[in-house]
Amino acid sequence: MRVDPTVHLSPLLLSYLTVRLICESYQVIGRGATDNVEGIVFAALLQQNTHGREVRMAMTMPPATQAEAGSAGNSATMHRSNGRFVTPGFRAGFVLVTSVFFAWALANNLNDILIRQFQKALALSRAEAGFIQFVFYLAYFLWALPAGLLLRRFGYRMGLLLGLALYATGALLFYPAAELHRYGAFLFALFVLASGAAFLETAANPFIARFGDPARASQRLTLAQAFNGLGAVVAPIVGGLFIFSGVEHSAQDIAGMSTTQLQSYRLSEAAMVQVPYLCLALFVVLLGLCLAWVRLPTISRRNDAASGSLGSVLRHRQLRGAVLAQFFYVGAQVGIWSYFVDFVKHLAPQTPEKTAAFLLSASLLLFMVGRFAGAALMQRIRPTRLLGTFAAANVVLVLLAMTLPGSAAIGALALTSFFMSIMFPTIFALGIRDLGEGTALGSSLIIMAIIGGAVFPPLMGLLSELFELQAAMALPLLCFTAVGLYALNAED
Prior knowledge:
With about 500 residues, this protein is mainly alpha-helical.
């Protein structure tokens, strides 16, 4: 299948036009929680009024001072940014960094398509295919702290460029991996790509907040995270259109194939990832070239490393609970999305894979809508109460998905995305509350808890083979129960 590469470059143009329009037309971007599905959130529930109380998250980001281009007048420009959504002279940089949010969401959410595709192309079981997420989130876990150290030493521009270089390299490695037709080669490519995404998330979240008036930092982060949500919605559509071939054989058909026919079928399915990931690499390379030359603000590299020992930070019960809750939440989220296409095919075998991918995209659209709905609800409802309510809703929905037949179960599972929307930022904000000088260290511990996304998908795949896929949803059920228990015991 030939694909016009410009189809994959259009998101950058879309990002530029949309952000430019919003920056120049809107005076107020809604305040609210920001979420990061698979990665790092440095701002959540900033200055939200909850029953008369302000929940303030300490943001350990040093102040912006000057442009990285080194212009003598840039400090004065930044000083005059009071009230500005984006400081004049930095709009192009803001658009490009916002596009980075879109880029890593594509990588994260294409994994849900790869899990299904590699079962066909490489003759994998569900448990084996679940190692796609294991390798991806393991890279996040391993690179979280080194990425932060690199940013402190070399600056945010360098962190973004290194992340984009690793991302593009990993995407390019999909081409030889398909030629080799080896699962290990694909996993290596994913690890390299995910390493780049880890650098991008570590750098982009705090950096985007420094493009204008500090009082409007949460608004900029909310806008950027909206484009991250857009990438999550677009990824399954891209996968459904360009990775799923539409050729589906039953087990009986495959059993009746000759060795040559079967090998040809699997090679052709593996090759389906080559063009989309080449286009993705091209998009990221162009984004990197633009970021290398555009004017960007500098964050002064003062000595603001985490204070306090690990032991003193872990004495905070709410932080310990947040680390565990985040581990379970990310495990549930990644597990459900990873096997959503399989779930649809299991309960409605007549549904084409492309249609199942579009249903996943619709579920992720609910996730994006839930972010803004949750932010509005938190103006009136305490964060812990809303978190507990949403966790309880997902316990009920997963139970329904486990017990109902056909489309009813699929609909219940799709709805869980809406109620997952507030969980990451709410747990994050509650966990670092009142940590004071230990905020940075506590934040790192919560961020590293995303390793849950590596642990649960393979376990769910194994359970689906021992029993069946609906029974495997017992693991997300337990995870949402754990989140609900944390909400009951946490303090606003």
